[in-house]
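Researcher: Final request for today, and then I'll write up notes for the group meeting. The sequence and the SMILES for magnesium ion follow.
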Amino acid sequence: MPVISFDAVTKVYPLPAGDVVALAGIDLAIEEGEFVLIMGPSGSGKSTLLNVMGSLDVPTSGEVTIAGKRISRMDDDELTLMRRDHIGFIFQQFNLIPLLSVVENVEYPLILKGRRDVSRERAEEVLAAVGITESHFTHKPGELSGGQQQRVAIARALINDPDFLLCDEPTGNLDSKTGTAIMELLGRMNREEGKTVIMVTHDPRMTEYADRTIRLVDGRLA
Amino acid sequence: MTFFDLARRNVSRHWLRSILAVTGIAIGVVAIATLGIMGNSINLMFNDMVSDVGDTITVSPATRSGTTELTKRQVDDITRAVGANRAIPFATTFDSVTVGETKSGAMIYAIPAKDIPFLLDMEAGAYPKDTGSGCVIGKTLAENNKDTGLKLGARATIGNETLRVVGVLEERGMGFDINPDSAIVVPYSWYSNHYDKDTYDQVIVKVRDVNDLDAVKEAIEQKMNRRENVVTVMDTRGILKEVFAAVDSITVFLMGIGAVSLIVAGVSILNVMLMSVTERIKEIGVLRSIGTRRSEVMRMFIYEALILGLVGAAIGGVLSFGTGYMMTAVFSGNPDYFFNPTSLLYIVFGMAFGIGMSAVSGIYPAWKAAHLNPIQALRHE
Ligand SMILES: Nc1ncnc2c1ncn2[C@@H]1O[C@H](COP(=O)(O)OP(=O)(O)O)[C@@H](O)[C@H]1O
Ligand SMILES: [Mg+2]
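Model: Predicted protein-magnesium ion complex:
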């Protein structure tokens, strides 16, 4: 069974000037363990697609199944728990919580799940796995370099052992050397841990890490 | 790390505006507690007066009866009406008092000698007797005339007759029946002879059991006022009831002022919280996207408001001890009233009001934060 499947999914934003069709009938399935790239011009619907996959947004019509559950009739709490327990988000701007230290940022999703007993220990394990040294654990995110912050964000996305990782241009804010290191890390997570990775990118060089590429034009698969 | 920690850290991250919000709450709590304590002290002060004279009924000529005097017959009727309770008639006048070379004037109370011990306590000397020519003087009068020689044992000439001061009365304070502190008390028999009078101004009835007060009043009314209103019967409780009502409304008014200042403080918390939400929109979007529920976001912001409220209330509570004590001392002259549990309760009340106000002010911003659209919040710069 696919981790994510879309069946005739549309997303329409009703605006006073007329409806904006961000997704115009998408059918797709992503299997466990795949590394999938999403590419397309600006405004083609890539972020919208990712948001629906991440149960941050619900489709206007069609059916989305995530980790075996249909999301169209879920209420806000159910969608939130879906994100918490099944999905790992990685953002272009890292989006770490400035009030929390590195290790606290990483353990946060586990604490949300009520696992304070193991959260610190697990966070330290995952941080080590993404290449953050112990001396940085108690730093605030702002005291780290961009590459280090994105590693911490990856650790935070991994800590609840999600069914898949959603990455919206994760290397967009990094220099190419650091970006490559991050891609290596994600590629390793995919190959060695079998993590499903779905990534929006503009960088054609990323295709070498991916199993396949989904191309979007005007909200349709091309 | 908990939602409470996040709230606490955000409060200390913006320490300056947090201090301002906390100060507002503290001032509000101090205002409400201090003004409440002030009103309460005045109340307690009157309360103490009641227990001094709470068993007293006064009978005086009715205003519309055309006379300001009670006859011997009327006094006898009243005495019979009150049964076993003691009826003490008295008359007053004002006359010149000469001691040695010094001549001045004083209020004179004429009370039957046998009744004086039931109404007044002596500080020094003895009660005057019907047979002798002795008088007693009030405490204040004695103190004010130390130099002129009006003191225990002195000879005082009232009008043209000389009396000996045989005693000094204990201080009695403001009363609803008589105020002998600055007066001279003489036996009624002397007054009657000296001024050739046999009428009285008023009758004070000392009721043995306070529960009988209404029954005794009723008995006097029945006896005296059956056909027409001859006398006015008042009890100190009735008078005090009105005083209390006035004092209560003063207290409510004072606390109202305090409440207004707390509401202003609440608005400042509301403002701080709205700022806190607005500048953290992106952060809220992140928290929501990685699985934080609405109720959890809400809790985080309510905690933040509560921390400001709790700290403000605690500081305000401590300060209220100082200001409350001072105000009590100034307005009632008796700082002990401050330690009365009813007074201290106003501090608790002020603090509870402050904390409640903060929590209420936090609800809307917290709700707003919890109901942000996560996608739009994430996009927010
Ligand atoms: N919240 C929204 N309200 C209205 N229109 C939106 C909203 N989000 C996206 N859109 C529109 O939907 C289309 C797809 O947007 P998006 O998914 O962000 O594209 P991409 O990520 O490929 O640049 C665009 O035309 C965009 O303007
Ligand atoms: Mg986009």
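Model: Chain B has two domains: 3-49+241-379, 86-203. The radius of gyration of chain B is 33 Å.
Researcher: Thanks, that's everything.
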